């Protein structure tokens, strides 16, 4: 084309473009030239359209299909929009998040509830915000509300631009669900970093909205979110002082993984449920807040019982069906052979509701095999089966209306440990990995939510299940794949389901209820079948295994206990409003009845200062004498060890079977060691209500029991004679050569050292020292004379651990390990600069006194003739270490 022709074409294009930008005149009139003033009587020219303005509603959803609901959902191809009516802005609803699909390791499992928030939509200009409201602080007065809004911030869950202009008739706008929900709302990048110490982040480009559902009360969207990290760092050239976790092992490529998050937008009940105040003498989950509208009350905290809304159809009938029963949907992924046991565990709770006038209050329904809905939405309470590479636990969390504590949803997750564990026995590495399964940053005050939802009952049940099956198989010839083992597996499934359903009905753990059944009752088959082996299914009850020659009764809990009936009565009994305060006081006043003894997770011990100082509140003990049970547990373990060593391996069996049996026995014995150690320096705690309860709030454990526990520890748990394994047995324990991480030869001294370390950790802790020093404050003058002193405890331990120094005997490998563990803890006691103010001056001086005595004994023993090189070297090393401790400059605090 010539230059002239090109210039002419350019002018033509510019002319056409100018005409296109000039608005047409009405009624076919000629347009005015650009920039010219409008003629008199003619309408002004319209300004150019704003390119940033949202498109019309109808244009955005053209060709899309609507799902009507609380917030209608529109879908077209890969695009998804949420429609928000104008009147829905600034109106609270419940927002919750569940994870439907996960990676199956290190606390990241499928079928888990992650949390909930009281939320609302807000619009700021063109920005749509999903806001979590602050429910921690509340008031009824207008002035206090203004002050709280200024003082305490809400949180932004997610935000996105409006995707459309307001609909002229529906008065609603659209928001793009991908812009809103494909980020890291659950905070999973932090959880992944905590698990693997790698910086994973959501990858929006490869994430999408997977499925949606909506009805009048609910809108649910499931997002499939891809998390990735660019690279896996190379391992360090030299080992780190603190071992680092491995990258993900269950994914094909550890740099990439998908999660399915189920986001629920649920309408709150139009009429809030009636509030029932909590009482500390019983254990209910609570919705708690600080009431800042009343400056007269010293304690502003308010605690509401978490419970389902349960109302009689016929309020005048002694026994009536509820208006709305509590329905648990059994997920279609539950194996068919366990469904009846799951159902039995659910409906067992009807016995407690019948006592307070409700018929069929709790119902179990099976999700159809062809169901196209996922019961992880927030309108289906459910029980789901999930799997993991390193997991064996169940969990029973719930979502609540923050205004009242009304439970609106619950999804119980059960791992498949019984499908695997009952036949192969639980893997020694598959019992502790699931302990993070309550944590998240989602609304429900994550620290409190974690303490409420944390439940390792199934993990512990599975572990002890392996121990019980193995012992019964070796003692009585029980067929691991036979009907008796299957019946036991079914009983354990029912027991676990009863426990987890109890959580979703609002009940906390009760770790003291097992001490309310006598040793004689535990041996009575008729009694245990009728009443169970504990007065609550909310305890972590040990298996009721008999010693050799004793009669066998029920091995697990078969039914609800007295405490369970009582807790349900308090939470759910229909009471007229004007009578509620007096009637609830009457119900709670029964707390002094022996069968209703109660102790929660903090009483049992959760760490730090809450180390569980009441020896009656334990996990995995049984019967009214925990000391007697500890002795029994050691005997059961010793019987298993004898039988495992005597058993001849069979062709084709798992090469790790005997090794797993040994690990399981030590795991159970480790719990017992911790429980029996609580007696030393222990305190009995009672839940006293001032002016109502006359009992003593705190009382030191009887001195005779403290000394009995010390004798058992010194003569049993710290004695090498308690752990007998033949060289021939150890030499035959092979490893799994098909696996890369095949393990090392079986080390009994390592297992014993770990168990004994738990005892030393407790008895030599600052908390125990403090209680032993302070217990005299709680005793009369006559009682103080026979009290157990800190010096007695340290002296008894030291004498038991270093008994060879007096006798001149050789010190074997196991005893050398124990003595080194003792010296490590003694060094920590003497290092006040490390401990700061945690070590009492009296405890420090007592530890130093006994360390000096030990140094003298080591010096004397080192000079005795006839000792082996190993013993002489160990004594020299110990003395050198001890002298270094005593000579070190101590920082005075």
TrEMBL record:
Q: Could you tell me which Gene3D superfamilies the record lists for this protein?
A: Collagenase (Catalytic Domain)
Q: Where is this region: Disordered?
A: 22-56
Cite the EcxA zinc-binding domain residue spans from the record.
Answer: 484-806
| Keyword Repressor recorded | no
Where are stretches of biased composition, namely Low complexity? 22-44
Read off the Pfam families from this record.
Answer: DUF4953, DUF5117, DUF5118
Question: Any idea which UniProt keywords this protein has?
Answer: Signal
Q: What is the lineage of its organism?
A: Bacteria, Pseudomonadati, Pseudomonadota, Betaproteobacteria, Burkholderiales
User: Domain DUF5117, which positions?
Assistant: 112-313
What sequence ranges are listed for the domain DUF5118?
54-100
Signal peptide annotation: 1-20
Entry-linked SUPFAM superfamilies: Metalloproteases ('zincins'), catalytic domain (SSF55486)
* Start-end of Pro residues biased regions: 45-54
Say if the entry is tagged with keyword Signal.
yes
The UniProt entry, under InterPro entries, shows: DUF5117, DUF5118, EcxA_zinc-bd, MetalloPept_cat_dom_sf, Zn_MMP-like_bac
The entry's protein name is Metallopeptidase
